[in-house]
Amino acid sequence: MDPFEQQVTELQGAAEGWDAQQTLIWGLSTFGQSVALASSLSAEDAVLIDMASRVSKFRVFTLHTDFLFPETYALIDEIEARYGVEVERARPELTPEAQAAQYGPALWASRPDACCQLRKVEPLKKKLSGLAAWVTGVRRDQAATRANTRKLEWDAKFGLAKLNPLADWNWSRVWDYIRANNVPYNPLHDRDYPSIGCTYCTRPVKPGEDPRAGRWAGFAKTECGLHVKD
């Protein structure tokens, strides 16, 4: 067993009693520059970046799919300026043009799982291969597929420790933190986008809809594959 896997297994129960700040402190002190925050520039990720900035130097990366919203790119610049950190870009092997030539145009519309695999999962896998741990903004109440999320987990899919400091937070608590600390966030959240991904696969959510209904609308798909256990 990997020594970090053993450590995660031993601490997992106790970690459920940690608050978000404690979870981050443990992760940053344990893994140092071998841990990074995975950020889609969502409200949750903005909270984690702000929290981490109050603890120590930290690494943060985003999956640069080439299909992000202009508002998302602008927020990357704002975060880098505000916190003095470089948002590392994990890019797909294929450019959009090369993907279209190999798999056909608008792959996201015909085979969204394949598009996510190429532009998100594979770049993430490559990025995580150089890390010992990663931090995510996953919350249990985001979706049924995330209901059993633990604050500290061993990610067997990618072979490293996974920290989910906000696992027990709800949407209101996220926004309470953002407002109380004047945290920069994606303005799309103010336009009925509770969950923000790529331009082609994200739409505003209508009143009464599930918060993730705006992702891959029209498909029986709620996850891109990053946080799904095989």
Give a structural overview.
This protein is an alpha/beta fold and 230 residues long. It has a single domain, classed as HUPs (Rossmann fold), CATH 3.40.50.620. The chain is 39% helix and 10% strand. The protein has helices at 3-15, 20-31, 43-53, 70-83, 96-103, 107-110, 112-128, 171-181, and strands spanning 35-38, 59-63, 87-90, 133-135, 152-155, 160-163. It has a six-stranded mixed β-sheet with strand order 3-2-1-4-6-5. Helix 4 links the parallel strand 2 and strand 3 (87-90). Helix 3 (43-53) crosses helix 8 (171-181). 37% of the residues are buried. The mean pLDDT is 91.
Question: How would you concisely characterize the structure shown here?
Answer:
The protein is an alpha/beta fold and 230 residues long. It is built from 8 helices and 6 strands, in the order H-H-E-H-E-H-E-H-H-H-E-E-E-H. The protein has a single domain, classed as HUPs (Rossmann fold, 3-Layer(aba) Sandwich), CATH 3.40.50.620.
The largest pleated sheet is described as: 6 strands, mixed
Low-confidence regions? none
Helical fraction equals 25-40%
Task: State the end-to-end CA separation.
Answer: 19 Å
Contiguous helical run count: 8
The SSE string, one letter per element, is: HHEHEHEHHHEEEH
Could you say how many structural domains there are in total? 1
- The CATH superfamily label reads HUPs
Quickly name the level 1 CATH class: Alpha Beta
**Strand tally, please?**
6
**Strand residue content:** 5-15%
Secondary structure class reads alpha/beta
Rg over CA atoms, rounded to whole Å, is: 17 Å
Strand order, sheet with most strands: 3-2-1-4-6-5
Overall geometry comes to: globular
CATH architectural designation: 3-Layer(aba) Sandwich
Here the CATH topology equals Rossmann fold
| Average pLDDT for all residues | 91
